[in-house]
Amino acid sequence: MKIDPVVFTVGPFAIRWYGILIASAILIGTFLALREVEKQGINADHFLNTLIVAIPAAFIGARLYYVVFNWDYYRQFPKEIPATWHGGMAIHGALLASLLVGYFMLKKYKINFWQSTDIVAPSIVLGQAIGRWGNFFNQEAYGYPVDKAQVPWAMFIDGAYRHPTFFYESLWNVGVFLFLLWIRRKKQLKCGDVFLSYVILYSVGRFFIEGLRTDSLMLTSTLRAAQVVSVMAILAAGGLIYYRHKRNEAPAGE
Hints:
This protein has about 250 residues and is mainly α.
């Protein structure tokens, strides 16, 4: 299956499906988050200002994370470091950078950090579900070759029928999104439970799906970076939920 990743061109500039999908994910996610912000009585202007700073930070973090894990290549071709249009972004880097920047912005505005992460968690995972279809148009982030007879949904990519891992992750993320919307209504939750549940559930899906991919960032010849980070994230988020519930912190929204 050969798909043109470029929608149209304007002079020397190419408008790509990936960019359109990422932009759509940001707009939809921001809209959903701001609706919840208003419901919870948080200053929408301050929250939006935080997003305006955190979103660019996410792109920078996503790129730096990818570059660090591919440093052998980029130290030989440093001019390629800012060339994001050639591919190379990592969600774990995006999350780390945006959370760090968001923490200080929210502290400045005196907005509860954990409450805010609960608000944006559904938007983040829905954005990931949408963004994965950019991999479809780019014909990237796919899995190992498979027998079409045994895997009827396999896609013909790069000369073989393969696991459409981008599709698997998109479906998983939609499921996580719906679960977060459901669990957010539970009154016994503590601030941060929704976000930490997102971290755990996304990481579980990513761990298994990553094992099918052919383009993983590798820590060693056998250890995939995303799987290691996923395990660490599951343990850290699970530990935080246990610890914070044991401390009997305030319920969500208080």
